[in-house]
Amino acid sequence: MGRNPTGFNLPCFKKMDKEGLVQLQSVEHTGNRAKAIYKVTETGEIEFKRLLKEAFQQSSVMLPSSLYTALSFVHDISKEDLQDST
Fold first, then answer.
1. Where are the domains of the chain?
2. Is residue 40 within 8 Å of residue 22, measured between CB atoms?
3. pTM for the complete prediction?
């Protein structure tokens, strides 16, 4: 099985689509290739912010990858939610 250099995970997007977190917006065709364009739904935005807040609440010295990910998106969480996380 070959690697996916773009990091795109179609089964993951299909699962999120089924859960109503993302929605297929359009499909662009370039030659023989099709490119699916997804958008985050309102439900997906709520879930994203919930997971982001949860990542700031967890403390893990051994594996702080959740914190690093959360810090990448710190601009997407309100100051109030961030303060509630501590």
1. 10-40, 43-85
2. yes
3. 0.62
Q: Six-digit token pair at 34?
A: 């099709």
Tens of pLDDT, residue by residue over 75-85, are 787 888 777 76
Q: Burial level of 74, CB count in 10 A (0-12/13-18/19+)? A: exposed
Write the single-letter amino acid at 40: V
Please check whether residue 34 is in contact with residue 28, taking contact to mean a CB–CB distance below 8 angstroms: yes
* Cα separation, 19 vs 14, whole angstroms: 9
d(CA 86, CA 82) in angstroms, rounded, equals 7
Please report the pLDDT score of residue 82 as a whole number.
72
User: How many whole angstroms separate alpha carbon 54 and alpha carbon 46?
Assistant: 12
pLDDT in tens, 6-43: 556 778 888 999 999 999 899 899 888 888 888 999 99
Instruction: Using DSSP, state whether 28 is helix, strand or coil.
Output: strand
